[in-house]
From TrEMBL:
Coiled coil: none
Protein name (database record): Amidohydrolase
InterPro entries: C-N_Hydrolase, C-N_Hydrolase_sf
Superkingdom, natural source: Bacteria
PANTHER family to which the protein is assigned, alphabetical: HYDROLASE YHCX, NITRILASE-RELATED
Residue ranges constituting the CN hydrolase domain according to the UniProt record: 1-260
One Pfam assignment: CN_hydrolase
């Protein structure tokens, strides 16, 4: 398959048509380049708050609700584009108020197949800003999506930094990592997490990023990142583990060809077998009595 992962700049939108045109342009470009799977970043949907005006977009709580209100319409657009262009799309995640999960929003990414099917993945563990300032909460459980492109898991940004969450989706051939990071340090943390999950699970991870400045938002005012596609540095993959990466803060798609047979092969006969040997940590993951040296 061919994967396209976005370094996505958010815009101040003057109409729904502007958003429709933008998404259509991005999807058309990736599909026209032969991509089968398109990955948009965490919180890329925050630009929808601008449809309610600058004052709403700049107000943290009002912007959460304004974006959430637009998600059904945005989902209809993504579903239509997935079918029209014959691609799988991970839409940019968004704050969503879900009455079944409480009175605070979750951070939800929605996944669209070309046959009209749709799934959703909520972020599990919130960053300090999300929990202390926004009041965003952990949502529904992790899922493994069985698709025509293989088994796909989604770890939203900070989730990729936790190995047990990665292990929960160890059955995935691909783990998608949509991210939104203000500074290079934040981008680096998520990138390192994504690469570590590729190593442990002997799979491919796909990281997308928001990029650029948004003076209309206190929440996503500065964004640093780039697209990246990573594998285990082992048989059949680059020795660095980097299959493809974009340029820092340069908007656009990063592409890579990925073969599921390569993933199956490295899991069966890699130089190392991290995924198979994971359970050997049990019983060895404790420390004996401390020993004083020197």
């Amino acid at each position: 398959m061919k994967i396209a992962t976005a370094a996505y700049p958010m815009d101040f939108l003057d109409s729904w048509k502007a958003y429709d045109d933008k998404l259509t342009r991005w999807v058309s470009e990736a599909a026209g380049s032969g991509a089968d799977l398109l990955v948009f970043p965490e919180y890329g949907a925050m630009e929808l708050a601008t449809l309610a005006g600058r004052d709403v977009a700049r107000d943290l709580e009002a912007s959460l609700r304004a974006v959430s209100d637009r998600i059904p319409e945005a989902d209809g657009l993504h579903a239509r584009l997935a079918q029209e262009f014959g691609v799988h799309i991970l839409a940019a995640s968004a704050p969503v108020f879900d009455a079944d999960l409480g009175d605070r929003p979750v951070n939800r990414a929605r996944f669209f197949a070309p046959n009209g099917d749709m799934g959703a993945q909520d972020k599990q563990i919130m960053t300090r800003f999300e929990r202390e300032v926004w009041g965003v909460i952990g949502g529904g459980p992790l899922h493994l999506f069985d698709t025509a492109l293989g088994k796909i898991g989604i770890l939203i940004c900070y989730d990729s930094e936790f190995p047990l969450l990665g292990r929960a989706v160890a059955g995935a051939d691909l783990i998608l990592v949509p991210s939104c990071t203000e500074a290079l340090a934040g981008y680096s943390r998520v990138r390192i997490g994504a690469m570590a999950r590729a190593l442990e699970n002997q799979c491919v991870t796909v990281m997308s990023s928001t990029v650029g400045a948004c003076d209309w938002s206190e929440a996503v005012d500065e964004n640093t990142g780039m697209g990246g596609i990573f594998g285990p540095p082992d048989t059949g993959f680059p020795p660095t583990g980097v299959i493809a990466e974009g340029r820092l803060n340069q908007p656009g798609w990063t592409y890579a060809e990925v073969d599921l047979e390569q993933i199956a092969h490295v899991r069966a006969d890699g130089v190392v077998l991290n995924r198979r040997h994971w359970d050997e940590q049990s019983g060895r993951d404790s420390i004996a009595a401390a020993r004083k040296l020197g």
